[in-house]
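chain below, 475 aa
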Amino acid sequence: MSIKKSVEIKKFNNFSNQNIVAVDKFYNCLPTDNKLLNCMGVGVAKLPYDVDDMTLYPLNTDKLNLESIDGVAYFKQFYKKSGNTQHKLLVYGSDKKVYLNQMFDQDMDLYWLYSLEFDSAPITLSYKKNDEDVIILASKEQMKIWKTGYSPYTVSDVPIITSMCMNDGVLFCTIQEPAFKVWYATDLDAENIGNISKNSGYISLEDDLGYARKIVTFDHDVFVFRDYGISKISFVKNNISVNQVYLSNTKILSNTVSVCGNIIMFMTNEGLHTFNGVKVSKTNVNIHDMLTGLNQNAVASSLGDKYYLAVKLDFEDNNKILCEQFDCINNALVVVDINDYSYQVVRGVDIKSLLPLKTEKIETMLCTFNTKDNKKLGQIQQGATSFDESLPKYWSSSDLVDNYKVKLFTKLTVKADINIKFNLIYDGKSISFTTYKTGLNEFCFKINCKQMRLEISSNDSSAQVDHVVLDYYEY
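prediction:
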C-alpha cells in the first residue's frame, strides 16, 4: 500500500542533515530560514555631493585615464581655525600617483595630491596627535606623513612597513625585513620607526609561530598575527611583555585579518575563524571545501556587523561567470553576518582591495578590482549584479528525503518569481521546470526512483523563491 508524503524545504540556509533538507552549494543568492532572496553585488561607488544633500554621485575617475585603480584610503582632518572637519578620499592609480577628493564639497573630481607618487599602493594609518590629524602613507619604497595644515613630507631610512596600529598613545608596526620584529614609537612619531631611542624600539618575536604579518588593536590590547599563530603584546609604562595566545596548524592569511564588532575574523586554508582576545574558534561558514590553496591574494575588511572576504573559490563546475572568463585572481566575495554567522557568496567578482567608509552621512564598503573592472572604483551594494550585469543565481540541495526506498514522485509546488528554473536530479537523470508566473506554480510528473536532489537557478538578479514542496508516494 502506498502512502502519500511530501518534503518541504523549510530552511534554505540549513547546512546540516538533521531531519530536514540541507544545502549542498549556493552562490549569488541569500539563503534564509524560509526564503531564497537577493544577495549583494557590486556597483559604481557613489558619494554625497553636499553635506546637506544626500543625493549620491560617482567620482569622475574616467578623467584620470588610468589603466587601473590600485588602492583607496580615507581619513579626515580637523582645522582648529575654521572649526571644520574635511573628509578626504585618496585614490592610488596605475600611474603611481595619489589623487584626492574632498568629500561633501560639491566636487566629484579627483586631483593629484601634492605631486605624491609611490611605486606601489601605500598602506595607511590615521590618528590624532597634539590635536592634529595625521595620516601615514607607507609603501614598499617610502613613507610620507601628512599632518593637518601642512604638506606631506618624506621620512627617510624607514623599514618597509607591512601593517600599523595605534593603541594607548603608542604606534606599532610590523615590517617586511626582518619580519620577526615589531617596532613601536611611544610618542606616535612614525619617524622613529627603525631607530632605537628613548621613545622607540622593537620587540623581537623569534619563536615557532613564524613571522609577524599583521598587527591590530582590539579591546584595548595589541595582537600580532603571525604565520602560524597569534601573540599578545602588553605595553605598560614602557614595560613590554609578549604572550603566545594561539598556535595554528595551517598558515594564517594575514590580509584576511579584520576586527569585526566584538571579535577578530581571519582565514586559513582550513576556513574562517574568530578570535575574541582569548580563544580562537572555527566558524560554520562552510567554504573550506572550496578553498583552492591559492589564496595569497585573499583580502578582507569589516563594516558594522559584517565581514567581507574577497577570495578564490573552486565551485567544482564548468561555469565561467563574469570575471572567471578572464585570468582572475579572486572570483568570489563572502559576506558574513557575525550576529548568527549566516553568509552569502557573491560569485563572479575579482576584488583587489576593500575599504570601509563610515562618516556621519554615509556608510559603505568601497572596493577596487584585480582584472575585470579594474578601472572602476566600486562599492558593495544590495542587488545581485556586477556593474549592472546580472549575477546568475544557484542553489542546490542534498538528498531531499531521508531513506532510499523506492518512491513515486508526482508533483513539485513552488512559490517564486517568474523564469526561475527548478531541476530535479535522480538516478543520473534530470527533469527541469521553469516558473511560468510569479506566485504559486505546480508541476506534475511521474518518476520512480529512490532519491532526488533539487537545483534552483536563475539569471534574473531580482529572482526570489518563497516555498518549495515535493509530493511523493512511498511503497
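The chain has two domains: 3-34+394-474, 41-156+248-390. Residues 3-34+394-474 form a domain with the Jelly Rolls fold (CATH 2.60.120).
thats it, cya
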